[in-house]
Amino acid sequence: MTYNIAVIKGDGIGPEIIDEGLKILKKIGEKYNIDFNFTEALAGGIAIDQTGECLPHKTLELCRKSDAVYLGAVGGPKWDNLKGEKRPEKALLKLRKELELFANIRPVIMFDELKDACPLKDEIVEGGLDIIIIRELTGGIYFGERSYSDDYAWDKMEYSRYEVERIAKKAFEVAEKRSKKVTSIDKSNVLDSSRLWRKTVKEVKENYNDVSLNHMYVDNGAMQLVVNPKQFDVILTGNMFGDILSDEGSIITGSLGMLPSASLGEGNFGMYEPIHGSAPDIAGQNCANPIATILSAAMMLKYSFGLIEEGDAVEIAVKKALKKGVRSPDIAKKGEKIYRTVEIGDIICEYI
Fold first, then answer.
1. What are the angstrom distances between the C-alpha of 52 and each of 76, 88, 148, 218, 232?
2. What is the dihedral of CA 206, 209, 214, 218, to 10 degrees?
3. Percent of the chain at pLDDT above 90?
4. Beta-carbon count within 10 A of 214 CB
5. 3-class SS shares of the chain: helix, strand, coil, % to 5
6. pTM for this model (two decimals)
7. Over the stretch 64-73, which tens digit does the pLDDT of each residue have?
């Protein structure tokens, strides 16, 4: 079987971490006799520099013809003077919208080996954390109409019933395979869009009798993530709230460099990327943590290709590496040996 993967390395540390992810996918291909066909394309700041566009048409067409997209990171201070549609980050929004990737799946997992890096008290996270945040990705305020002047600016936040229904269904389907518990987070005491959100989620729930549903305002949800995170299993929320809560969720696990994400549509096609940014301050130094990118490859194997055993093999190899004390600078305690980006990829390959 051959799988065609569009590879967008992007900016900053993107090329370094994607190279390690490709190394892992090639190792999986060798072990399980699977052919992966990788084709590189430009997006983000590097695409602006070389083509004048953050997302060239050629890149978008390649993604549409591929079985999955593997993305590093985009953006950086070099392009901070650009505004609006010209910014490199707009490439991500356009990819999500044009490829109809409406569901962002972000695991919030605390590895036992990194418990000491968690900023919360031991008693709060005793027994570990395993949460899935499902964020609506192509609607809401990020895609609404907007206007800006030096004296006045506005952004429009809107959701349709259809948009809420399809993301809610995705959340309940995921919950059915886990602990059968969904917490929907909104701001329905203030926002009309959230009132429609809550009403629609309740209606979708009627088709999933074995799944419990709880509602929470976003300010309380943000607090509960640090006060009592173990109460959550599947968190369902909108685009802006999900952006904030998933970053909060990631940091309570110890490091942004550890967590992957998948952006999915209706079928098997998806885009896979680490949740962290391009970290231009450490680019080219061979010190970036590639584990989130490697775990994103594991999600690709499972979600887009249905290769469960192969995805598990990657995750098991990562856990073995952590157990042996393999640490990048962002997760290392004082006095621990520091491993370089390439070394971490090599070690995980050996465990595979």
1. 16, 10, 23, 38, 44
2. -50
3. 83
4. 12
5. 45, 20, 35
6. 0.88
7. 999 999 999 9
Q: Are 7 and 70 in contact, with CB atoms under 8 Å apart?
A: yes
Give the confidence band of 214 by pLDDT, cuts at 50, 70, 90.
Answer: very high
pLDDT at position 189 is 98
Q: Which of 39-43, 102-106, 328-332 has the lowest mean pLDDT?
A: 328-332
Fold of 1-100+276-352: Isopropylmalate Dehydrogenase (3.40.718)
Give the DSSP letter string of 307-340.
Answer: -HHHHHHHHHHHHHHHHTT---TTTPPTTPPP--
Neighbours of 4 (CB within 10 A): 14
Q: How many CB atoms lie within 10 A of CB 61?
A: 12
Which stretch of DSSP H or E encloses residue 25? helix 14-32
Which residues of the chain does CATH 3.40.718.10 include? 1-100+276-352, 119-252
CATH architecture for the domain at 119-252 = 3-Layer(aba) Sandwich (3.40)
Report whether 259 contacts 250 (CB < 8 A): yes
Nearest of 60, 85, 88 to residue 75 by alpha carbon: 88
CB 121, CB 227: distance < 8 Å: no
Residues assigned a catalytic role: 142, 187, 219, 243, 247
CA angle 160, 180, 217 (to 5 degrees): 50
Q: How confident is the model at residue 247, as a pLDDT?
A: 86
